[in-house]
Backbone:
């Protein structure tokens, strides 16, 4: 079936029927606005992301189901970074005329499966045709008790710098795809179907452990740079401390320059956070409980904006925040 | 200056500096999420819209400042339709590489000027390059006391059907532009810089007058059709009752078939609402106070989904909801 036959309202009606109600959702899909209620005393947390074909993804590299899942996860990751619980999602779709309805159905199935994983509900959106690329716009609303919201602003000199999981896997998969070769399964899964670290974010926030937190979407150096700027501090990172997966390590053994991907690759969707020294001891139990590595990468320093990389030989070099520049034709700014 | 030189973070920083704080905005642009607080006891109302170049607008027909304003107004109109107060906006931009920074600055100026008009604040967004058209994604959050939220669901047989303002002006301007001729100034202003009827929506909701309400974005027949479907009722509309501007009337005198634009043209961004008969008398004072025509178009009937058009000669015909179909190559579904 072609989308022009089904029509905008037919398509929306199919989605509406697939979504169940949820507590706090007084009106979902099917009115001018969604009508919602947050738990009493909680702050509203909202974030929005665009995913554009040929910029953020290629349809030939992924399937529609995982693209739907990833569209949710990259957005929910921003809620995790504030220590919040994701609640409501909004999906804007600009759809090329030639996209089969079956592909759209798979995308929606993936989108809804990820919503279920995170306990969130699709409550609104907008659909129209696109004259060019497939366009995906996702907005997420979450909430957290006001005293538990974690911003980028609170890092202090002496705090430990930590990352969850491993770094560079997604960027390694993307590098393979760009080279025309096949990524290993672990890296490919990290790239096509990343998991937002909601449980970790909530656990840390509830314990009021992090002085600052951000999700790793633009690359470690760029995202750490955002914390340093917002907190007016500096940092020193030990390159040897970067948490790397076995697949990444074996790639690195063949091509040492790939360490750049763990430093600046982007799309890790892990959490990067700073912890006051007196409380660093509490992390081990959380890591064990969640079955998730939490690795100390370095230390916050006093000099605003100054970011040093400590090499394995003991020397150090000044780093610049070389995150993804979406406006540069070469990606890196 | 080209956008690639300014970079994503440079561009966001320019926007951030142009936005003032507001009550209830604990964190705006510059963290993973905006952190917000609604007035106690109010429901959260959220809506999202996509505006895509060559689908919703052409850059040659409008200037960037008014495009920025319209991007806000069409979204805020959904808050007005629920009886709410608009509070927070989120802007996603997919930007063609060749778009001059000056155009972007004009767009942002227009966007922020409309935010100020509605008393709302830009608190977040996402920017990236677009490989094709200019892409605009806007999400708005508003709120209303829970007892005052108006949905599409409450229309009852015997209720009067009302529209604010005049109908068809925006569609007339679009028709002229598509024909390659120049629209009159009034119609052009309605098309390029519509005003969301927030004050009317709030006034009606506060008085708990409307049994159902919607904003006129897809065209009178299509949007009335949404109310009929959600409320499981029918309607009869008097064609002679349609509120038309002087400019529209003079166009109609030359081409009577243009009445179709008032019935199905779309983008009026007026409010369409139903009022129980016992309370219709209260509308005149509101119309006078706001300086805005509120016109009775017809009556809600009992037969679900049945929409009759009463002609000036007394005869009637069954109407179908011929609103804009964004997936049809010809626009109309």
Residues:
């Amino acid at each position: 079936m072609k989308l022009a036959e089904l029509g905008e309202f037919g398509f929306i009606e199919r989605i509406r029927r697939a979504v169940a109600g949820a507590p706090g959702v007084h009106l979902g899909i099917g009115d001018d606005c969604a009508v919602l209620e947050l738990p009493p005393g909680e702050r509203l947390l909202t974030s929005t992301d665009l995913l554009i074909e040929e910029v953020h993804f290629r349809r030939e590299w992924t399937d529609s189901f995982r693209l739907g899942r990833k569209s949710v996860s990259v957005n929910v990751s921003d809620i995790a970074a504030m220590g919040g619980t994701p609640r409501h999602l909004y999906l804007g779709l600009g759809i090329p005329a030639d996209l089969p309805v079956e592909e759209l159905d798979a995308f929606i199935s993936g989108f809804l499966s990820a919503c279920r994983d995170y306990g969130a509900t699709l409550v609104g959106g907008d659909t129209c045709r696109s004259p060019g690329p497939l366009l995906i716009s996702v907005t997420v609303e979450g909430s957290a008790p006001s005293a538990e919201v974690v911003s980028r602003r609170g890092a202090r000199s002496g705090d430990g710098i930590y990352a969850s999981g491993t770094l560079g896997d997604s960027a390694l998969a993307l590098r393979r795809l760009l080279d025309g070769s096949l990524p290993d399964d672990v890296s490919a899964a990290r790239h096509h179907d990343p998991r937002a670290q909601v449980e970790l974010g909530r656990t840390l926030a509830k314990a009021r452990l992090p002085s600052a937190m951000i999700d790793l979407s633009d690359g470690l150096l760029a995202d750490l740079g955002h914390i340093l700027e917002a907190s007016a501090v500096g940092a020193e990172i030990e390159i040897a401390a970067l948490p790397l997966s076995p697949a990444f390590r074996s790639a690195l053994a063949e091509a040492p320059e790939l360490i750049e991907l763990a430093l600046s690759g982007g799309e890790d969707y892990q959490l990067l956070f700073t912890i006051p020294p007196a409380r660093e001891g509490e992390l081990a139990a959380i890591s064990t409980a969640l079955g998730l590595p939490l690795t100390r990468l370095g230390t916050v320093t006093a000099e605003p904006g100054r970011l040093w990389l400590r090499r394995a030989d003991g020397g150090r070099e000044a780093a610049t925040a070389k995150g993804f520049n979406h406006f540069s034709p070469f990606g890196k700014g």
About this structure: Residues 40 and 145 of chain A are 9 Å apart (CA to CA).
